[in-house]
Amino acid sequence: MAQTTTAFRFGTYGDPSVLKLTDVDLPEPAPGEIQIEHEAIGVNYIDIYHRKGVFGAPLPLPSGLGMEGVGIVTALGAGVNTFAVGDRVAYVGGPPNAYSHARNLPAGRALAVPDALSSRMVAALIFKGLTVEYLIHRCRNVVPGDTVLWHSAAGGVGSIAGQWLSSKGITVIGTVGSAEKVEIARANGCNHVINYRDEDFEARVKEITNDRGVDAVYDAVGADTFAKSLNCLRPRGTMVSFGEASGPVDPIPVASLGAKGSLFLTRPSIAHYTADRGEYETAAKNLFTAIQDGIVRAPDITTYALSEAAQAQADMEARRTTGSVILLPEDICRTKSRA
């Protein structure tokens, strides 16, 4: 029998005010789908890009929002035999509709969650953790002895990256925007932390590396950092541009990559690194093992009620948050605090 649920929708691109919480139909899951009731929902910068219509092909409107969540399976579509009602699953990807109390999801996007991991922890880590997993293992496989520069080192992705990279014997140089975030980045494994408001990060990186440069730069900031980041690379280094929090990167002449040292440049997307089911499951296994082994620790988690999703995005966009941001459906929300 068809039901209704509460979910965010937006019918125009713009600031957080375009997000509207509304009652929507929740049909029975179609063949190959499962229905889940959310326990925790991750908030990521890609959600902001989708809301603004600035990431790849803009979402067709009106649209739901949100790419990751953790919940309990409540119904199965025809042909689904990999999960059972009552299973706890997490997901990354699929049609954007995570900002909801319940939803239908292609079963191929669902991942079984180990009993030892809480739903809040998984929601705080799954998208960001899988992002780090592919960036440091498959996009540019860093090895012991490498030195990398990671921008926004105190954020959700940056905190996980610092932990995982330091466990692999990588020297991590992180950039942050405040004294408070300097300490957060250090606590999460950065060997050197640069407050870009006080120092020129390009000059400082050259000083730290004795003018050698770094093996890779991981940059989700975009316009404000891209050009100088290229200058931080050693010959044949790799520039990984995986976001544009400060705005899109201006076009660059391809020949300039050669002039700067035969550099490699990539603009990866998690969608292309988790499209294959086997690769997706292996990446999740690597992440869950790293969490259970204590290599990747739960970051500071900022919680908002699901109804506060617009405020959560506004705070994230203004860089008022650290660690990971999650939404909790009101019926299980235990706190409205920001800790």
Automatic annotation (TrEMBL):
GO terms for molecular function: mRNA 3'-UTR AU-rich region binding; NADPH binding; quinone reductase (NADPH) activity; zinc ion binding. Its EC number is 1.6.5.5. PROSITE patterns: QOR_ZETA_CRYSTAL (PS01162). Transmembrane segments: none annotated. SMART domains: PKS_ER. Keywords: NADP, Oxidoreductase. Residues 14-327 form the Enoyl reductase (ER) domain. GO terms for cellular component: cytosol. It comes from the Bacteria. The keyword RNA-binding does not apply. CDD domains: QOR2 (cd05286). This is Quinone oxidoreductase 1. It comes from Paracoccus haematequi.
